[in-house]
Amino acid sequence: MAFVQNFPFISIVLSLFSGPLSSVLGGKKAKWVNLAVITLIGAMSAAVLAFVLGTGEPYVYRMGHFPAPWGNEIRVGVLEAGMALFFCVVMLLCMLGGERERALELPEGKQNLYYVMVNLLLCSLLALIYTNDLFTAYVFVEINTISACGLIMIRQNGRTIEAATRYMIMSLLGSGLLLLGICFLYDLTGHLLMSNIKEQVGLLYAAGAYRVPLLVALGLMSVGLAIKSALFPFHAWLPDAYGYSTLSSAAILSSLVSKGYIFLLVKIFFRVVGFEVVRESGVLNILFVFGLAGMIMGSVSAIQEKNVRRMVAYSSVAQIGYIYMGFGLGSLSGVVASVFHVLTHAATKSLLFISASGLTDSSGDSKQIADLTGAGFRNRLAGLAFTVGSLSMVGIPAFSGFVSKLLFAQAAVEGSFVKMLPALLVLAVSTVLNALYFMKTVITLYTPARGERFSGRGFCRIGLWEQPAKTWAMLCLIVLNLILGLTSEPIIELIRDGLAMFE
Amino acid sequence: MSKKLSPQEYEKTLSYRLGCWLSGSPDPFVGKLEMKPQQILQEDIEEQQQREEDREKLYERIYDIENNTEVRLFQKVYRVFCVVFCVVLVGLLLAAVSYLPTEGKGEKPVNNEVYERYVEKGLEETGAVNLVTGMILDYRAFDTLGESHVLFIATCTVLILLRVDPGKGKKKGEEENDRLYEPKNDIILQTAARVLVPLIIIFGIYIILGGHLGPGGGFSGGAVIGAGLILYLNAFGFAKTERFFTAKTYKIMSFSALACYALAKSYSFYTGANGIESVIPLGTPGAILSSGLILVLNICVGVVVSGTMYTFYVMFRKGGY
Known about the structure:
The complex is a heterodimer of chains A (503) and B (321).
Chain A: H1 7-24, H2 27-55, E1 59-63, E2 72-76, H3 78-97, H4 99-105, H5 111-130, H6 134-153, H7 158-189, H8 194-207, H9 211-228, H10 238-244, H11 247-273, H12 275-281, H13 283-304, H14 308-328, H15 332-361, H16 375-378, H17 380-394, H18 400-414, H19 417-445, H20 468-486, H21 488-502
Antiparallel strand pairs in A: 1-2
Helix pairs in contact in A: 1-2, 1-5, 2-3, 2-5, 3-5, 3-11, 3-15, 3-20, 3-21, 5-6, 5-11, 6-7, 6-11, 7-8, 7-9, 7-10, 8-11, 9-11, 10-11, 10-14, 11-12, 11-15, 13-14, 13-19, 14-15, 14-19, 15-17, 15-18, 15-20, 15-21, 17-19, 17-20, 18-19, 18-20
Chain B: H1 7-12, H2 14-23, H3 45-63, H4 69-98, H5 113-126, H6 131-139, H7 141-162, H8 172-176, H9 187-209, H10 218-236, H11 238-241, H12 247-274, H13 294-317
Helix pairs in contact in B: 5-6, 6-7, 7-12, 7-13, 9-10, 10-13, 12-13
């Protein structure tokens, strides 16, 4: 076994170990440990990706001395390694971008606990990506839930405590449904290992046995994960959680936490139940309808919103709707589009959150959109970054959002006529709605702030290098967006290969 | 033949006291034991007003009940809807359960090769007489590694939420004297605790150490030790427990236990995956020093669990050590 093949296991254990380590360190040291761990794991994931691309086939890594159905194992393919790399990059940039806010907003003695949460969150994301065992996935879903809660409420004021309570209740409901689904599947197949469950489900399905509990199990798992990733009717926890938590928490929650669950759902579809069975079960149709509703309703709520952070948060509801709509199309190209949109949304939403905070900094800390008038002139880079993010979310060519919308449209056209029409229609309407609220904000940013209305509001200029960490984060995220938008072909190819390796 | 006692000695005997009690003479413990009734929590007027104002603000400004039709409608529909939702969900799940394979029949899908190997070869492969322990700490140790970190991160979240940093939060006097509303120096509790606490803690240690030999293990033993510590704290107060258990102790304890767990398991994951023979002997099944790493892991889990239990209690009680 090549030494590179140990890297996924080392990165999981390293991030797990760095959690308790941060709890005994002070805030400053914990910050450096955290940055070092994320960078190191990103580098290791890149090496693993190169290795898997070289060999061209996935491998399983046995966790311990016992082979798979008895012991635990993790499985590494192209998509897993690529996702791990991407998550590390985005997380590093989110942590850099929110550095100043963390120092200002978090209580002095509790800074190191923040890094405990972030390290264990990274660990749980990695484990969700790599695991080949459904129960291991559940254990790390628990860690993910609790750490996300901690990230929300560590900035202690009334709104975040309320948001964290809501998140906890909804998210635990999701975890409970997921666990019930896993129990059903275990009872039907007698296995927890993904590959073995798939084999057994295939046999059961061919024999026509246990159709009802199989459907219920699949439904419970899909709905559970949909609640946790804020699909439209279950999104009530989202705007407060993203809108009032500290900056890096909001960016990490929107771009990584919900995406981890979506990736787990993709794994369940392809590696646990089998996409054929999922398609015939009809669960996808429900996800399709919810996704379409989310695309419209998320945008409508965002249009009504006056607070810029909450507006960006509501936009997430719409984008999660896109992703589930892609699953709902029921074709491989639909899933490819969804996975690409996961990348797009992660790169763009973190950019939007960070640049929005740069804009509010220059506008006397007011988060009202009306007060951001002229903020694009006061903080030029943040204005540029927000514009790039908005253009990407609307779907202007050269940015990543365009590619994912193109992929969605292509997938819709390839599919059945019944789904094609509503998908294309809603895609068009949602794009217009996206443009409405994003372009409105961008125009506000570049309207010169003249007149009495704006005097005495604490407006100030922020130079390019006044907040270097945030500047770097925004620059890197803009570049990441352009990379996803301009060189999408190899990335789409990678996603296709990765999904093919799931079989 | 009974010995004749002097009056002073006679007064100490049980029969004399019983006689006194029967004849209705006053209780000798009155005035010696603390019998102060619990105080009722009294807020000063300022605090009360503040609280009411906050509540009003919440309803008026944030929810804006009067003008917010959405919230008003929601409050009306909520009760009905949640009952309907629960009934439908319960009905659906019960219906689904009736389609599952019948319990108690031999050919259930769960009775497959996985379970057979656990039962038949568990003792031989893990060296643990207790098959459950062998399963969670050796076959599926990765899951348990995650599970112990769930406990750790839960404590960290409670610390974020409840820990009172010095100079903040409650008023000084109240913070120092957390037993204002509870009886102090309760002789009955203290006497009972003096007898029970050592027994409870020794029993907890026994459960942890014997986890691979019989029922027990780190999780249950740790919970027992944690309960013992909480009893001790209740009887004797923070002044005594803080001599050996502070926030720093907890941090170091849980860090070293989790680090030890992660290191030990990393070794076995690494050797297992790379096909290297592990140097850790399994020992003779049934001996206390047997079954490889399981004993060490049980101790680690026990340390984490007991610390977590105790810390939870302290956080809810006082918000700090």
